User: What shape does this take?
Amino acid sequence: MMNSVKLSVIYYSATGTIHAMAERLTLAGEKAGAEVRLRQVSELAPPEAIGSNAAWSQHVERTRDEPRAGADDVVWADAVLFGTPTRYGNVASQLKQFLDTLGPQWAQGLLADKVYAGFTASMTAHGGQETTLLALYNSIYHFGGIVAAPGYTDPLKFADGNPYGVSHVTGGNNSNPLTDVEDAALDHLAQRVVHLAGKLRSA
Ligand SMILES: Cc1cc2nc3c(=O)[nH]c(=O)nc-3n(C[C@H](O)[C@H](O)[C@H](O)COP(=O)(O)O)c2cc1C
Assistant: This one.
């Protein structure tokens, strides 16, 4: 394990979609030989907002004891995959708040020279997935990070169709589960960042 690539999968999920994508990335990262930390960022929404949505309340309950992300999970990693549902075409404030706590590490250059990529979900097709990933990457550029967008680097990317990262359309009531198409794209993303981070380490 000592020489393996270190991958952190850091995400926010209200109703479980991004959580499921993060778990798939974790397995794929481990299969690619990485040591992986799976971390959720803290929930910030008020209890009345969470309580107004049964799926949200259930997810909060289900993941209550899962490890929370800290700055060290980024500093430690060679590669970081950030996941967020779209919020009006933008990064969820919970993940943004986590990024906004990284000022001290940013000031010391501890966020630079790592491989980063993102994953997201929206309820509708064209609902803001690409803008969410591009908004996320604005922060990565400021870190001095290396955005390892998947592009169309494998034929399978022509099936999921998102060169900026990986994304899923949840449909009404968030009822569409992940399909083989998204699973394949998630596996490819994890393999790619682990491979690139390994190359960077040995360069
Ligand atoms: C405040 C808010 C804003 C949202 N904005 C959009 C949007 O602009 N486009 C869209 O398709 N879905 C939008 N959604 C739906 C979420 O993106 C969707 O429920 C989420 O991707 C599911 O991920 P999760 O299960 O991990 O929370 C929004 C949801 C909320 C609560």
About this structure: The radius of gyration is 16 Å. Strands lie at 6-11, 35-40, 79-87, 90-91, 115-122, 146-147, 166-169. The first helix runs from residue 17 to 31.
